[in-house]
Amino acid sequence: MFHKSKYFLTLLGCFLCLPGFLLHAKEDIYLEPEAFIAQSFEGEPEQKVLWLTQETKAEIKAVFGRDYQGLRIRYWQLDNRTAWILEEIGKVKPITTGFLIEDGAMLQMQVLIYRESHGWEVRYPFFTDQFTGLKINRNAELNKKIDGISGATLSVNALTRLSRLALYLHGKVTKP
Amino acid sequence: MNKSKLTAMLALGVSGLVSLLPAQEAPQQLPSQEEMWQMIQMQQKQIEALSALVESNQQKVESTESEIVSVKANADTAVAESKQTKQALESTQAQLDATTLAVEESGSSSLGWWDKTSIGGYGELHANFFEDSASNEIDFHRFVLFFNHEFNDWISLYSEVEIEHTSISDTDDGSSGGEVKLEQAFVQLNWNEQSSTDVGLFLMPVGILNDYHEPTTFYGVERNDVEANIIPTTWFEGGVRQTHRFANGLSLEGGITSGLNVGDDFRIRSGRQDVSKAPAEEPGFVTRARYTGISGLELAASFFYQDDLAQEADTDFSGLLSTAHAVYSFEGFTLKALYAQWNLNGDDVPGDAERQFGWYLEPSYRWSLSEQYGDLGIFARYSDYEYYNNSQRENEVLALGVNWWPTDNVVLKADFEQYDNGSDDNGRDNDHSVNLGVGYQF
Question: pTM for this structure?
Answer without folding.
Answer: 0.76
